[in-house]
């Protein structure tokens, strides 16, 4: 896939995936269109050679794989992993706050969100709803308001003259968005608003009452190419839907000859210790059902995982926060992430393989190491490496404004990483 087509698809995917459930639904649609067969975890599996399959858990995590034409015990698995969730604000179960003439919504901060950029944005809402139909059956569905329906207004600087130097945010007090004027809508509650939107989106829905909801706020500003020469991409959720997009595209574009798998976990931003997270049993369950017993251990010894999660590009306004020799630059290629205390799982073996593939394709490659006097973040890489015992690489696209409501990356880097990942999926042998 050439660069412009790749980026057009990426921007469309980002704009249509405001929540993990929407992202997984969109990835499942791509896999369906490519002829992959959806598996149900509750059914018996019968996997055929040379076929594509995928499985979804909780609607927010997905594993897709080619069985290949060789046994994993002999060929090993070529795996990549990313995560579907991003830091955001999520609506509380009983969210209504009626205060000073406004209907506001109580929200909870999900993950390590950078909060200041959420103020004064045109926000919408999307997520998953569980409801009861007229026959008393429970159903799940997705909802997306798509239009601006909420704002978190800043306090005017006239009332806080120190706002630019010392304003802090109290999550409970300052983050509830304004959605309605109560004088005009005195009896409206949040479930009514959800029901109205569901009936507008799905005119034939058989909705008696809403049982539960998982709703995220999101910025309605569309993803875009920006810069004087269009050299950047800006969007919400680049961390880590960008990696989900390139992972699916690389798997679909590969020749399918080798056993290859892509796992897209949920809940990475809150620790991954869930049924859908990287510390949960999802990946292990799929591998065990694919190949069991002694052959599974043989397969793992011949396998590798690429944990694909965005890296910190050097910020031109804050260079003092980076190691002088390890500050990645946007559009200078994918970034191998290294931490000797194993916050990243890269080793000389896995990093060397990636550099070898990059060199073959003429793709530049960079390295990130955090300053020695600062703490280091982590990814699903070390969790997966320890969980199933697999050689792992941490790699990603360099970006700015990580965990902001709008993030920034180079317009060439994702495509470069896609090319390397596709080649990796097609390798005859991982370890010569």
From TrEMBL:
Q: Which domain of life is it from?
A: Bacteria
Q: Which UniProt keywords apply?
A: Aminopeptidase, Hydrolase, Metal-binding, Metalloprotease, Protease, Zinc
GO cellular component terms, alphabetically, are: cytoplasm
Q: Which Gene3D superfamilies match?
A: Aminopeptidase i, Domain 2 (2.30.250.10), Zn peptidases (3.40.630.10)
What cofactor is this protein dependent on?
A: Zn(2+)
Say which enzyme class the record assigns.
Answer: hydrolase
Which Pfam family, an example, fits this chain? Peptidase_M18
Q: Which GO terms describe its biological process?
A: proteolysis
Q: What is this protein called?
A: M18 family aminopeptidase
């Amino acid at each position: 896939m050439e660069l412009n087509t790749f980026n057009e698809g990426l921007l469309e995917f980002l704009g249509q995936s405001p929540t993990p459930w929407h992202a997984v639904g969109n990835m499942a649609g791509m896999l369906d269109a490519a002829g992959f067969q959806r598996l149900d975890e509750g059914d018996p599996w019968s996997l055929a050679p040379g076929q594509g399959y995928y499985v979804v858990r909780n609607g927010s995590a997905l594993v897709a794989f080619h069985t290949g034409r060789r046994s994993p015990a002999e060929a090993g698995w070529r795996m990549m992993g990313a995560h579907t969730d991003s830091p955001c604000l999520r609506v509380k179960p009983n969210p209504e706050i009626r205060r000073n003439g406004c209907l506001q919504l109580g929200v909870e901060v999900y993950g390590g969100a950078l909060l200041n950029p959420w103020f004064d944005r045109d926000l919408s809402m999307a997520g998953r709803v569980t409801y009861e139909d007229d026959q008393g059956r429970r159903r799940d569905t997705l909802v997306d308001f798509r239009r601006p329906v909420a704002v978190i207004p800043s306090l005017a600087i006239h009332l806080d003259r120190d706002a630019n130097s010392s304003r802090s945010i109290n999550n409970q007090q300052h983050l509830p968005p304004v959605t309605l004027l109560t004088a005009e809508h005195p009896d409206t509650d949040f479930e009514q608003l959800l029901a109205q939107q569901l009936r507008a989106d799905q005119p034939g829905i058989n909705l008696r009452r809403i049982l539960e909801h998982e709703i995220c706020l999101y910025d309605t500003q569309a993803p875009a190419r920006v810069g004087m020469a269009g050299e950047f991409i800006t969007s919400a959720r680049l961390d880590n839907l960008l990696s989900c997009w390139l992972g699916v595209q690389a798997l679909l574009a590969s020749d399918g000859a080798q056993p290859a798998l892509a796992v897209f976990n949920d809940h990475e931003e809150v620790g991954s210790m869930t049924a859908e997270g990287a510390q949960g049993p999802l990946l292990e369950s799929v591998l065990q059902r694919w190949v069991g017993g002694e052959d599974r251990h043989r397969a793992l010894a011949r396998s590798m995982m690429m944990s694909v999660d965005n890296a910190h590009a050097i910020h031109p306004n804050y260079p003092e926060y980076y190691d002088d020799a390890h500050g990645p630059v946007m559009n200078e290629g994918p970034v191998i992430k290294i931490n000797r205390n194993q916050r990243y799982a890269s080793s000389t073996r896995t990093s060397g393989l990636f550099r070898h593939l990059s060199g073959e394709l003429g793709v530049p490659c960079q390295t990130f190491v955090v300053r020695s006097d600062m703490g280091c973040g982590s990814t699903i890489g070390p969790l997966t490496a320890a969980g199933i015992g697999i050689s792992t690489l941490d790699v990603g696209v360099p970006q700015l404004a990580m965990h902001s409501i709008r993030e920034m990356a180079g317009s060439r880097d994702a495509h470069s990483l896609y090319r390397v990942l596709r080649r990796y999926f097609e390798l005859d042998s991982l370890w010569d």
